[in-house]
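Take a look at this chain, tokens included, and explain the fold to me:
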Amino acid sequence: MPTLLGAFIVLLAMGMGPVTAARADFITGYGWVTTDAIAGSSTAATAASLALGTCSHGTAACTIGNADVSFTTTGINFSPSGLASTTITNWLASSAFPLNNIVLNVPGTTLLSPTIWEFVGNTQVTGTPGSPQSFTFQHDDGMTFVVNGQTVVNAPGPTGPAVTTGTYTGGASTNAPFSLIYSECCRGQAVLATNLVGPGTAPPNTVPPVAGVPEPSTIWLVVTGLVGGMLRRKLRRNNTPV
């Protein structure tokens, strides 16, 4: 019986553990190389700056169609070593969340300063006038955050590393649209981090079983066959004449 129990435990260890699931990407990020005049202005990280005819490389408005960088992800946390503002590649590599579907239309060695970024998607919110919901951001330089049509943080101008908290009171939603605009100027330091929850309607990405690991139904068939075989052999030994 100890042999049977050991075999059973081994089979359980092979594939009876829980299946891991993860949310699909719910954030899309866009970045543009801009001008020092825009990134260094008091209204840098705003929708108005994106709409300026000099936003993209000083020659056009910043639009999805002419973005220098785009990607999808499940979170926003860009904290390079020493918070140093170096290159776009280093900035992307500092993300604490995986960046998927990356499109880079400028050399990766392009300086992060001056650039302007927009992150859009949908998130879950719970705040009401009677029960406000707080959002906290670490940022250098400026940023604005609008969710479900309500401006929660309005700190668009240049700054050293700062922590800013904003309050949302616009009502509960499992699929509220948001826009976070961020700008980096003046070299020095660069950081952007916050916590956002994926929308309740986001489809799960189920991680498939590890290759070569049997499905649970297969394991139970194997266990049943193993138990039956061992019992039959035991009965034959007991019935063998001495």
